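Duplicate of earlier report; HTH lysR-type domain-containing protein input re-posted below.
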Amino acid sequence: MNIRQLEVFRAMMQAGTTKGAAELVGLSQPAASRLIDAFEHAVDLPLFSRVRNRLTPTPEAILLFEAVERTFASVDRIREVAADIRAADTGKLSLAALPALAFGLMPAALQAYRAQHPRTDVTLAVQTSARVEELAAAQAIDLGFAELPLTRGGVDVEAFCKAPLVLGVPRGHPLAARPQVTPADLDGEPLIALPQTSLSRQRLDRAFARAGLTCRPAIEAQYAALVAILIARGLGVGLLDPFTASGSDGRGLAHVPFHPSILFEVAVLHPTQRPLSRAARAFLAVIRRERASVLNDSPN
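Output:
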């Protein structure tokens, strides 16, 4: 028994004649007849009675046809699933990102991605950059977004963004009118900063030290999104990555260039032991476009 025999048997039941069945499957009538005979022999059942040069389905054929229809429904479903996979429109996508990207860029990217691929299930873990690296190295995620530099190998890495941090200030604050702000300009200002475990905070501390100053935040907050909220409420000023700053526009917050430049560098990580899925490649294309719209650069 083979799939071609099943196709001709199914066509025969649908068309009612050998000629009609042959046309449905694109065969000659003799070829269709031979396949029907072979199928009867394979199942060892009488499938058609020959009355007045017509083939009439037997009760056994009618019962068998129900099973064949279920089989072809499964085959059709396999074709649909394959088409969905080719279009990256089904399956699962597992992401992990450092908080600045998870809260600053991911919402817009996921909104755009889900609009195009509504049947793909997505999970997003908000983790430290070190933990994102661990998850990618353990093959536990499809894509990770972590701040550079990386501390371990075992993952494929590609650059995602390299953009300067900006100083976030409450709207109407005197510093909002400055063309740029330096560590010396922040002397006496209540500073809101990330914890010292953050790479961006460590770079800020070094910028203050080079200016002969000590970075003493009035408030430390774990997430850049929280820093932005506190700034908008007038509790102080603080450095923000460009995605958090962009997402905070219109919330009572302004941003000013900071000198010396402190770069926010992020890479995309994915496991070395498996190729990127179509869903992952489609998401990368979407989030690159969202990044470009914030940074005004090329999505490639």
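The first strand starts at residue 48 and ends at 51.

Merging into the original ticket.
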